[in-house]
Amino acid sequence: QVQLVQSGSELKKPGASVKVSCKASGYTFNKYAMNWVRQAPGQGPEWLGWINTNTGNPTYAQGFTGRFVFSLDTSVSTAYLQINSLKAEDTAVYYCARERTPGAAEFDPWGQGTLVTVSS
Amino acid sequence: QSALTQPASVSGSPGQSITISCTGSSSDVGSYNRVSWYQQHPDKAPKVMIYDVTNRPSGVSNRFSGSKSGNTASLTISGLQAEDEADYYCSSYTSSDTWVFGGGTKLTVL
Question: Which of A5, A98, B17, B21 could form a disulfide with B78 if both were Cys (CB 3.0 to 4.6 A apart)?
């Protein structure tokens, strides 16, 4: 079945970096765009952007350029989110989410989420 | 891009119907039929329940339905069941070629 499996929880200090992985299975990886979404505690989801899994071209939402980096390793069907210069306000659950069908506006499936905690 | 506006909470008794609204603008909900609704249970990832305003993915109960009028989209759940208790989020494609989510609505089944 189509599945996205993310890496485990992370505890980081302010200023550090973190890299979250999202391994896809059950479908052809480069046929579907991958999105990244975060959800701070008690808040709604926030779209961070997406990466074209065919070309590797990333698109970042406003406010998420510079410190946030999307990348791929197509040989292992894995997408990555790296966040640099972490701040306390980056504490959230980070999800990868595939477009349900090529060109679709809805996301399905989602990874199980990766909790990133930034605290000194 | 501002978040879409949803009521913080709604409630209903088993068997009743409830409707959750999602208000955006002419830059998102009002201009595109690309509104989705997600259900999220505690400590779980969101699950798409409605896409393109009115469509249900395979496997989603026909008790869930969607509609749109102007800048406001709505999710209706009929025949409420205990397992429907969850947080619900709307999402829309925008004129900036981005996606925006709502702040979420907590559904309580009394």
Answer: B17
- Pick among A106, A107, A112 to test the B interface (most B CBs inside 10 A): A106
Cα distance between residue B93 and residue A104, in whole Å:
10
Q: Identify the bridge partners of residue B4 per DSSP, sorted by sequence position.
A: B102
What average pLDDT is seen over chain A?
A: 96
pLDDT, tens digit (0-9, with 9 covering 90-100), for B43-88: 999 999 999 999 999 999 999 999 999 999 999 999 999 999 999 9
DSSP state string for A5-39: EE---EEE-TT--EEEEEEEESS-GGGS-EEEEEE
B98·A108 Cβ contact <8 A: no
**Would you say A58 and A64 are in contact if contact means Cβ atoms under 8 Å apart?**
no
B36 chain-A contacts, CB cut-off 8 A: 105-107
Per-residue pLDDT reduced to its tens digit, B23-41: 999 999 999 999 999 999 9
Chains A and B form CB pairs within 8 A to the count of 66
Q: How far is A39 from chain B (nearest CA, A)?
A: 10
Task: Please return the burial class of A75, using the count of CB atoms within 10 Å of its CB with bins 0-12, 13-18 and 19+.
Answer: exposed
| Residue B3 DSSP label | P
